[in-house]
Design a protein that fits this description.
Alpha-Beta Plaits, 6-stranded antiparallel sheet, 57% helix, Beta-Lactamase
Length: 336
Amino acid sequence: MSNPLTLANFKRAAVVVSMVLFVGIGVGQVLKATVDNLLYWDASAAAVSWARYVAENVTDLEEIADGQQPSAESMAFLIRTQQIRHVFGFEIINVYGNVQLISDGSRISIIGGAVHSDAAARAAASRRPVISVKEGTPPVRPGYYSEAHLPVIVDGRLHAIVAAYVDLSEQHDHFRNAFLLAALALCLLISGAVGIPTIAWYRRTKEKQQADRRIRFLAHHDALTGLSNRAQLMEKLENALAVLASRGGGLALHFIDLDRFKEVNDTMGHDAGDFLLKTVAERLRAVTRVDDVVARPGCVRSSAWICSAATSLSWSRPGSAARIRRRISRAASSPR
């Protein structure tokens, strides 16, 4: 049985984990960029709508931006505006970027240009909205909010800059959850489209590797007993004889014949004969040394000698061959 804790398996696992992390980080970045983009456009639409609403209802907006007190009607409207959902603060700023009136969502203050806003100055200079989406720290600021500075232009003339602070926490959660579900569904579809063929390819590759190993094994071994076959026996004999010619020494070659093996096949069936051959092969392997070779040169069931032949090949001192022969004979003839 193969050991799953191998370097190759660890490498495969590392590649899979790296791919999952890469995809996860990529999906996270795409998700964040998509949500931020949607929040920006949502904030732009909300801020423009709110600024237009203020410009249409505050008739003295230009005067307020110039530092004058708002009329009673305009002040009443601005107080009501603080109750608009999602808008938690606003400012009225002159064309130079100096804040004249500020609301924190609960109270309106006239500060007379004491604070300068660079974003408002950029909006005045470009005559285009300057909008940014930011992360806040509740309860001081919402988790996600937009800060929009919008120029109020009437008949081609810039009257004031209106700043609106819009709470985007609810929209952010909605967009994030929707796109997260979509991203997960997409990942599952991609995983299925890629993973199933990959698993099938991997299994097919493993099966092919196992088949190749089996073919290579059968090219040099007997299919029934797992012993060396005739080809491998002859190869090892040739190698041993070549070494003998240069180094000297001895070589013992033992042939084993199972008595009445044909009767076992005829009376008890081929399964019994196969079992007998495998049992004898296991015993011979157990009593021979690592350098010895035990082989089954043939596989014809009707010939007892060919089916049961075994060879022990060893370098030996005088008397070694006889001792090996006795060990083999005892192992093969033992009743169990």
